[in-house]
Write a structure and sequence with these properties.
Elements lengths: L1 H12 L17 H12 L9 H9 L14 H11 L15 H15 L4 H12 L4 H14 L11 H4 L7 H12 L4 E4 L14 H4 L2 H13 L6 H4 L6 H22 L13 E2 L22 E2 L9 H17 L1 E3 L5 E3 L5 H10 L7 H4 L2 H10 L26 H17 L7 H4 L4 E9 L3 E10 L15 E10 L3 E8 L5 E11 L10 H6 L2 E10 L2 E8 L6 E2 L5 H13 L16 E2 L12 E11 H4 L5 H4 L29 H4 L4 E10 L1
Parallel strand pairs: 1-8, 7-16, 13-14
Antiparallel strand pairs: 2-3, 4-5, 6-9, 7-8, 9-12, 10-11, 10-15, 15-16
């Protein structure tokens, strides 16, 4: 079926109309047309484009012919074309890493051209033209970033990266089988296995770090909130970007620890620059071009990485950041001080640690997170003796495959906690919601997880020519999922008027791996956010039902390449201007399959916490309950929730009786089963 779809659509592409230049912000193109173009620009990205119109544009378009179609009067396109003519761009069929400064600059040159295109014809013509001339990895990154951030493509759904660049997500043994299937013209469906063996305890949680949905979540978040973002250049501000950086990685860390407890492993230990890296890692993946991803042996000590950083430099940066936390302020580039001893401080600290262009003083505080990724990723060949390509930690797509990723982020997370614990705890008066009480919380349906098979296409993994027919090639991987359930929350509004409320749902493991209960203060730091949403409470008892599928922290699977193309062509054939795929526009949340941790066969105990807070005080924008689709991992514009991420559990709790005395706070023990 897949082969028939692709063959039919390649034939249909020949009839695709040429767009005229229409400088109306859309170029005269419908959403369906835009989806069609993006589909084919990314399909078989290492080969010639399989769309006649796009192929013609790629051969004949002159990017510099009419600069009136660019919002910067062609400044960006002149820069890129000059680099191209001077033969300074990275060659095609070569690996690409965003952490490589020069390669990132080249990718962003193309991104700037696309972002400054005034209409769709200019956008798609540039994309088709430079697809033929720039490195494929740079092209994919630039196009993904542009589609995410451009106003021209707000309704376009990007294909899943694991089908666009399968090499980054699929074991090399399976890729080899895919090549054999292609060469022998024999359809094949191949089983993927997680890296390592049962001799390695980390194998028990490989289903989490190597999950292609989680990999996609991580890279998509960094595309939505890139560290290179410049407000002046891009035209708008990414609200609370530094705090979002903290929260998304904090949640990955606590979720990973919950998975470890589900599999009888201790929580992950933080990384130390002067200590041994006990766990090695063999990625079992290869670049499309450029060799295998480097391995790291067990029990090695950190070494300086030539041309990147000395270990002592990272220790110095860490000490400067810890000093800033201790003093309660960051020293800005101009010598002024930025107060971080407040709710906004975590946002500043996140910008400093990552660091992004929002950092008040990157010259002094450096780029601890980004540099650490490179240094840890290069430990297999720190001095370039073997001229190895970048490691998995030098790609956001592959970082979480290495268990050391979570050790690195536990280290970062503990620095953030040092700041959070320095803030004054909330008082009972600050946490109360006058006249509102939670009468009861129950769960409709089992908290039960299971493993299922998931299939994705490897058609784009193999070399190709139009003269050789496609055959159906795919891989099947085991992944975690859970049965659907609903939270049923009874809330009594004793006020004589309607009130706006924010419902916040969390859970943390009841016991550590030694079966010792976590204190409230330790538990709340390990809390997994399950949902956050707004609702109106009428006077009297309100019965709230919230389905697990509605969670604001998760997203569904992005449709496969096959499905996206098939739906798009069906819409075009029917004369429709839209494709019914709007629910997939944002792919930045955690996979909805990962809403709850795995648990175990006996039932792993978790503390379920529900807090109902004052929606009027929480709201940063109007009409939240009516017009805000809230996904806190990827929200553009003014961030809708005034409260810090994790509120009301984000600050230390010296006396848990404060929470137990709150009528708008509920806590109970639940069990999560895995069968």
């Amino acid at each position: 079926m897949k082969v028939l779809v692709f063959c039919a659509l390649v034939a249909a592409a020949a009839a695709w109309p040429n767009f005229g230049f229409v400088n109306d912000g859309t170029g005269g193109a419908s959403d369906a047309q835009k989806q069609h173009d993006v589909n084919y620009l990314l399909f078989k990205v290492y080969e010639d484009v399989r769309d006649e119109n796009l192929h013609k544009l790629g051969e004949t378009f002159d990017p510099e012919a009419d600069t009136s179609h660019y919002s910067d009067n062609g400044e960006a396109v002149h820069k890129l074309v000059k680099e191209l003519k001077d033969h300074r761009l990275l060659q095609q069929k070569h690996w690409f890493s965003l952490f490589n400064t020069r390669q990132r600059e080249e990718a962003l040159l193309l991104y700037d051209v696309l972002e400054h295109s005034n209409d769709w014809q200019t956008f798609v013509s540039n994309a088709a033209y430079f697809r033929n001339h720039v490195n494929e990895g740079e092209f994919v990154y630039a196009l993904y970033a542009a589609v995410i951030h451009s106003s021209l493509t707000k309704n376009v759904v990007l294909p899943p990266l694991y089908e666009v660049t399968p090499h980054l997500f699929t074991n090399s043994e399976v890729i080899q089988e895919a090549y054999h299937a292609k060469m022998t013209q024999t359809p094949g469906k191949f089983r993927s296995h997680f890296t390592g063996s049962k001799k390695n305890p980390e194998q028990r949680v490989a289903y989490f770090g190597e999950d292609i949905g989680l990999n996609t979540h991580h890279v998509t978040w960094h595309l939505e909130f890139p560290f290179w973002w410049n407000d002046k250049h891009e035209g708008y501000h990414l609200d609370r970007k530094g705090e979002n950086f903290f929260w998304v990685h904090h949640q990955l860390t606590v979720r990973f620890d919950a998975e470890r407890l589900s599999n009888h492993l201790d929580p992950v230990n933080e990384l130390h620059w002067e200590a041994t890296i006990e766990e090695g890692f063999a990625p079992h993946t290869t670049y499309k071009y450029g060799g295998e991803f480097p391995s790291r042996p067990d029990n090695i000590h950190f070494e300086d990485v030539d041309g990147i950083a000395h270990i002592r430099d990272l220790i110095i940066l860490e000490n400067r950041i810890r000093d800033a936390i201790a003093h309660g302020y960051v020293t800005a580039h101009d010598g002024s001080t930025v107060d971080i001893n407040n709710s906004h401080g975590i946002d500043v600290l996140g910008d400093v640690i990552e660091s992004s262009t929002y950092s008040p003083n990157v010259e002094y505080y450096g780029s601890l997170h980004n540099t650490a990724h490179i240094v840890l990723g290069r430990q297999g060949d720190p001095h370039g003796k073997y001229d190895l390509p970048p490691g998995v930690l030098e790609h956001f797509e592959t970082s979480t495959r290495d268990p050391a990723f979570f050790r690195l982020h536990k280290y970062m997370d503990n620095i953030f906690r040092e700041h959070k614990d320095s803030l004054t705890p909330y008082t009972k008066e600050e946490l109360e919601f006058s006249g509102v009480a939670i009468d009861g919380v129950s769960i409709d349906g089992p908290l039960e997880t299971f493993f299922e098979d998931f299939e994705y296409s490897l058609v784009n993994a193999v070399d190709d020519t139009p003269q050789v027919a496609d055959v159906a090639i795919s891989t099947v991987v085991s992944r975690l999922n859970h049965k659907d359930f609903s939270f049923k929350i009874d809330v009594n509004n004793n006020n004589d008027h309607e009130v706006l409320a924010t419902v916040r749902i969390f859970a943390w493991p009841h016991n550590d791996n030694n079966d010792i209960p976590y204190s409230f203060n330790e538990g709340r730091w390990r809390a997994i956010e399950l949902d956050r949403f707004w609702t109106k409470l009428s006077p009297g008892v309100n019965h709230i039902v919230r389905k697990s599928t509605e969670s604001a922290v998760t997203v569904p699977d992005v449709p496969s390449f096959d499905s996206l193309i098939e739906r798009t062509e069906a819409a075009l054939s029917a004369g429709s201007s839209e494709v019914d795929i709007h629910e997939f526009v944002s792919a930045v949340g955690v996979p909805n399959r990962f809403l709850i941790p795995k648990g175990n066969s006996e039932g792993l105990e978790f503390e379920l916490v529900v807090a109902v807070t004052d929606g009027k005080a929480d709201a940063a924008v109007e009409g939240l309950h009516e017009n805000t689709v809230f996904n806190h991992y990827g929200y553009h514009g003014v961030y809708p929730d005034n409260r810090p991420h994790g509120y009301p559990l984000d600050r230390r709790v010296d006396d848990e009786r404060i929470f137990h005395d709150l009528s708008n706070f509920h806590q109970q023990t639940v069990k999560v089963y895995n069968h």
